[in-house]
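We modelled the chain as a single entity of 424 amino acids. Its sequence is:
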Amino acid sequence: MNLPAPTEYFSFFKPTTRTNWDFLTPLALICLSVFGIAFIYSAQFSVSHARATRGLLSWLPLLGEDWFKQIVFLGAGTVVYITVSLIDYRFWLNLAHWLYAFCLLTLILVLVPGIGREVYGSRRWLIFFQPSELAKIAVLLMTATILIHSKVGTVTQSLGTLGKLALAVGAPMLLILRQPDLKSAIVLPPMVFSMLYVSKLSPRFFVGALSAFLIIVGLVAWDSVRYMKFMDAKGYSYVTDRGKFEKEGNPIVPFHDYQRNRILAFAHPQKVDPKGIGVAYNLQQSLISVGSGGFFGKGWTDGWQAQLGYLPRAVAHNDFIFSVIAEEKGFLGSLTVLGLFGIVLFNGIRIAGSARDRLGTLFAIGVTVLFAVHVFVNIAMTIGLVPITGIPLPFISYGGSFVLSCCLLQGLVQSVWRFRKDFT
């Protein structure tokens, strides 16, 4: 692949399509961000309102509220988005290996006691950011780098490439699972597989991959059944005796018991949590939120599930933000959010198709599929279609590291659009 001179990457004002921006996706992202700020505020409205009634200077603590922090994150993310959009996307190939190495270093450091910060039993934070968000970007860049420098097509040609990819993707995934952070690990394979698909890899590989996926699903199901039989035979509680099966039950898959509880809460909630006070509680309250919204909803800040604490405040403004939207804006508001995401995803596919080189296509399709997985899994888990995994909703769920990574990735897609006609 012929790369331009380094100075060409930053020639922002060259009179080509570099001055031609795609405004459809940014407008949709702005609308989603406004939704996010509004409903993060609404999800914590009762707490904020209580603070706002304590005196003339009571507004000062509001600057520390999550909705205000989200505005700050989005402001920083806007700078990141514009900066990445102005740089020729081919420039990132020069940084792929360095960024990947830095990503592995941070994923290792976060596991070290005293360095990584533990929250809710998982060691996912390094100072102020989550290395797993950086891993999404690093894996995208490394996958694209490997694919554009390798030959694929026949099975023989593909074996070496697949071996490199297995190492490049497997290392960060294993480190992420060690935190443990299943939600960040499961979004990587679909992104990589989509990039392999547009690289015209042999169909036999995808048949084999599908077979492997079905085997893994079967092993997880078998492990879950063994877990349930073990807990019942020993008389252990699914809520208070977590960890017993990990130590005594010879598990088939390297899951933690709380992750097994999430699977069983989806498949058999009455078995795991018959009183609805433990692992299945969030799902039950989410279903009530979504179902009670009707067509038009109860009105902004008028929903009672999150504000009265039935939908726990620890998750209402991030993992279950769609439940808050569905309750307060109903089916119409939910459909609006889905429509905005539809614009972002279909426009990403359009940009991937308009790219004039293989790298641009890989970047655009990888980012689009990554976002599609986030959107589908997040919304599906709030309505009980898939087990609860804690995957956030892009540009709507609260979170600094997540917002910045989303802005960087979408800026990369914008760069593909702006620089597409530099190729003849």
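As a brief sanity check on the tokenised model: Residues 21-54+63-422 form one domain. The longest strand covers residues 122-126.
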